[in-house]
Every structure is written in C-alpha cells, then in structure tokens.
Design goal:
The chain is an alpha+beta fold and 290 residues long. The protein has helices at residues 30-42, 92-101, 117-123, 132-135, 184-201, 221-227, 256-274; strands spanning 2-8, 20-26, 47-50, 56-58, 63-69, 77-80, 83-87, 104-105, 126-127, 130-131, 136-142, 148-152, 171-178, 180-181, 234-235, 238-240, 248-250, 283-285. The site of flavin-adenine dinucleotide has 34 residues, from strand 3, helix 3, strand 9 and strand 13.
C-alpha cells in the first residue's frame, strides 16, 4: 500500500486547505485495509477515513495520526438487474453515469455531489429532495478491528446529513443501490438539468467544501447569512460566496484559521439577528490556530 509521511492535506481536500497528516495511507484492497486497521488499533494511533475530501476542513497545523484514503483504488462498480454495487471509493458521479447507461433511475438528483459513495452514505448526502437513504439498500462496513459486516438501511440511523456510521466508528467498504428501470434518454436529460441548476446556484469555480452549515429547521442557512449582509464578506482569502451565501470559498491562500473565524462571525450575527445557532455541516479535523 502507499504510505506517505507528513502529507499535506490541502492536496486532498476540495477546500485546498489543511496542514500535514502525520501519515497518509492508501490501501490497494480491503484485505490490506483490514490489516492496517488492526495494526493502528493495536498501536493506539488515531485514525481518520477520507473519501474525496469534499466535506472537510483540516486545521493548518495538520493532523496527529493516520489518514486512510478510501478512493480510486477501491472503486469497483458492478450491476445486477436493478442493483448497483459500488465499492466505497467510487464517486457518486461514476455510479450515476453507470446507472444512466443501464437505464436505472434514482441517482439523478445526487449525481452532482462531488463525494465518494462511502462519504455520501456517512453524511446521508442529499440534494433536490433526495437523500442517500432513499436509494441505498444495504452497506458493508468494517469495524476498527477489520471485521466486515453487512447492514440494511434501517440499521444505519440515517437523519438529516447524518448517520450512525460515524458514531459506531465503522468504515464503509461497499454500498448496494436499488434503482428503478427507466428510459436512458430521460435519465440523461434529468441529470443534465440538475447539473445546470447546480452550476447556476453554486460557486463551483472556487475551492470550497460545499454548504458550510446544516439547514436550520424552516430556514435556509444561505438566506439567513445573506440577510445579515455577509455576501462577499471575507477574512483574508476566505470569502462568503456572493453566488450562494451558504458557501465559503477559498480565493487563493485561505487558511483554516481564516475559515473558522469567518464561521464564528456568521454564527454570532445569525444568532444575534434570528436567535438561530447555525451548526456546521463540514467535518473539522486536526489542530487549529486560535
Ligand atoms: C461544490 C460542492 C457541492 C456539494 N454539494 C453537496 C450537496 O448537494 N449535498 C450534500 O449532501 N453534500 C454536498 N457537498 C458536500 C460533500 O460532497 C458530501 O458531504 C459528500 O458526501 C462527502 O463525500 P466525500 O467522499 O468527499 O467525504 P469526505 O469529505 O472525504 O469525508 C466526509 C466524512 O465522511 C467520512 N468518510 C468518508 N468516506 C468514508 C468511508 N468509506 N467510511 C467511513 N467514513 C467515511 C469521513 O471520515 C468524514 O467524516 C458538496 C461539496 C462541494 C465541495
């Protein structure tokens, strides 16, 4: 397997932010992953799992511990009838493309989410009134001692942008989607429409981690932030997107400290104006400067 000491995490996050991980490992297969997990547990080394790094803010001082990548090396996809089985490192876009080719519908609204299938299950990622829980039938996951278990969706505690996978410290290795047969051209058309909607609304031309905050009940975080006059507000190169105030973008050399300071300013303003505490959707890893 590939082992890289002192690996800059900014190379692995869509935000292009993050200091070095003590150790960054890319297993080539699940057998290696199982052995690696056992070793790290026995050595009591703190372990993080990264997919495509699209929902992460890593501290400027980096991460003490080991980051394991479940990405392109573990991304085989197979199709049987209406079921698609994807290894956790496959991207949602790859699975959606295969679904389209096979005339299987259900993934179109999720096809533009830039994460892996593993990351998307953990986050119960969703868009346009569809969430992972609506299309996933079962998940195979490894325990921190390398044992593999299968879980039906009802066992995964799916909620808004959350699942019980993280709390159980499981590592997703395989996901089975059960989809609905449909006309290929119709599926293709819908995927293209969702892509246009995304491009119109989101600042995809800049590095970001998607929506910074979860949607508060009965509100949209982006609207609350915009109403507090935060559009375009910046701390150094971290800026609240004018196109979508729910996004913080990296205009060049933003640091995790810049982003966390901006997050705090936004939270304070929205709390003072609306009495609503915005909860971050992104995961924050490692050591942050104060
Ligand atoms: C431009 C942009 C647009 C976005 N739009 C959306 C959207 O519309 N809807 C939405 O929900 N999200 C959106 N996101 C956020 C993000 O893409 C999703 O949350 C995605 O599911 C994260 O997947 P990932 O592979 O990048 O996970 P990562 O960012 O690598 O990790 C996220 C979390 O999942 C865990 N994880 C990852 N893989 C595994 C695994 N195999 N086993 C166990 N744990 C794992 C990590 O430990 C971490 O806790 C967007 C992000 C960007 C940058």
């Amino acid at each position: 397997m590939i082992i890289r000491p002192k690996e800059e995490m900014k190379k692995h996050t869509s935000f292009k932010i993050g200091g070095p991980a003590e150790c960054y490992v890319v297993p080539e297969n699940f057998n290696e992953l199982s052995k690696l997990l056992n070793f790290l547990k026995n050595e009591r080394i703190i372990t993080y799992i990264i997919g495509n790094g699209t929902n992460l803010l890593v501290g400027d001082k980096g991460i003490a511990g080991c980051v394991i990548e479940i990405g392109p090396k573990l991304s085989k996809i197979t199709v049987k009838g209406t079921r698609i089985t994807a290894e956790a490192g496959a991207t949602l876009a790859q699975v959606a493309e295969i679904a389209e080719q096979k005339g299987l519908s259900g993934l179109e609204p999720l096809s533009g989410i830039p994460g892996t299938v593993g990351g998307a299950v953990v986050m119960n990622a969703g868009a346009y009134d569809c969430e992972m829980k609506d299309v996933v039938e079962s998940v195979t996951a490894m325990t921190r001692t390398g044992e593999s278990l299968e879980y039906g969706v009802e066992k995964l505690g799916f909620g808004y942008r959350t699942s019980s996978i993280e709390a159980k410290k499981l590592i997703v290795t395989k996901v089975v989607f059960n989809l609905t047969p449909d006309n290929k051209n119709e599926i293709k058309k819908r995927m293209a429409e969702y892509k246009v909607m995304r491009e119109k609304k989101q600042p995809l031309e800049y590095p970001s981690a998607g929506s910074i905050f979860k949607r508060p009940e009965k509100h949209y975080a982006g609207v609350l932030i915009s109403d507090c006059n935060f559009a375009g507000k910046n701390i150094n190169d971290a800026e609240v997107s004018r196109k979508h105030c729910g996004f913080i973008i990296n205009k060049g050399n933003a640091t995790a400290k810049d982003v966390t300071r901006l997050i705090e300013l936004i939270q304070n303003a929205v709390l003072a104006f609306y009495g609503i505490l915005l909860e971050p959707e992104i995961k924050m890893w490692g050591k942050f400067d104060k």
